[in-house]
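Lab intake sheet, docking and co-folding queue.

SAMPLE TYPE: protein with bound small molecule
LIGAND NAME: magnesium ion
LIGAND FORMAT: SMILES
REQUESTED OUTPUT: full 3D complex as structure tokens
PRIORITY: normal
SUBMITTED BY: R.K., bench team

The fields below were copied directly from the construct record.
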Amino acid sequence: MKGFLIDLDGTLYRGHEPIPHADSFIRWLQQHRMPYLLVTNNSSRTPEQVAEHLLELGIEVPAAAVYTSSQAAAKYLTEQRGGSRVHMVGEAGLRIALEASGFAIDGTTPPDYVVQGIDRSFSYEKLTEAVRHVKAGATYVLTNPDRMLPSDGGLMPGAGSLAASITAASGVEPVVIGKPSPIIMAYAIERLGLPAADVWVIGDNVYTDIRGGVVSGCRTALVLTGVATADNVHEQVASAGVTPDLVCDDLAHFIAQFSAFDRS
Ligand SMILES: [Mg+2]
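RESULT FIELD (auto-filled):
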């Protein structure tokens, strides 16, 4: 039995456009009853919101098949047992994941953790507050390190760019949860219930998806439908210093190559 950890943006869709063969790939997984999780660094949406967005694009998955960096951050905090008070810099997906795990957000006492994701209303005041808590000893946790994100109107700064300002001001580097961190990878592999060697990581980003898969002992497949393309793939693989097991034009090409790879 093989399991699959599949990226979202650039792999199943681009913004509001489904990527060709994404829907048939998900049906192929479901028909063969192969365990899979859709793993996203995006901390702003809940699994339910991700599943709704996919449904609008013609891809039907249960919310339980979605695993976000916010869920992984909440699980990480739970395992640390370092207290329950959180100062959050982020959006609804992060807030809901933290509250669901029993964390008290922004109480009147100093926080045990500063947990930061993307926050599209980030401000000088929010920066100041987060930096003061980190300097006072709160553990600084970052949902995902992405510095730039694709959006409909072009690239926009991601959680990693906000983190750079908090780190510059506080002198403290965060604990990073999202891909390529082995933290989210280990939790996702654990959810699949398979040994890492039987898990394929599929994504469009060499620096996050493929590196995360390689450091976690998984098989990896790079699809050329997002950050990596036929034009830049050689340059990106060389600069990332990690090599995917398979390079695929798209997910239909993955199925064809996977079947051959699995028999060998
Ligand atoms: Mg992607």
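REVIEWER NOTE: The chain has ten helices and 15 strands.
SIGN-OFF: pending second check by T.M.
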